[in-house]
Amino acid sequence: MQEADGDREACSVHEEEQQITYQGCTANVTLTRCQGFCASSVSFNTDTLQWETRCGCCQPLSTYEKQLSLPCPDPNAPVHIYAIHRSVTVLGPFFFFSLAKMEDSRSGKGGISSRTVAY
């Protein structure tokens, strides 16, 4: 797992209790989610004259399936299968480049115009 910056929590697995109801049958289950800080930055590269955006993404690394049989009077009630996150990771960094066009400040057309290209 990646370390967090400052007070931000690193990307990790979080559990939450949820109530599932299907055809009048109800059960409490523990579900998981990926959550946490993923580093990102934007900087201007003076060599390429491009804005460079780097960003990570908190994603599941491994999961397993869990079966849920709802307590129903109907013996033919279906068994539900859902995924539980075993571990997570920060994917990336993903790079996005904004192509910048420098304007001649002597002509009165100052500033930078750009368009974004994702890789």
UniProtKB/TrEMBL annotation:
It is found in: Secreted. Keywords: Disulfide bond, Secreted. It comes from the Eukaryota. One of its GO terms (cellular component) is extracellular region. Gene3D superfamilies: Cystine-knot cytokines (2.10.90.10). The keyword Disulfide bond applies. The keyword Plastid does not apply. Residues 11-74 form the CTCK domain. Its main location: secreted. Pfam families: Cys_knot (PF00007). This is CTCK domain-containing protein.
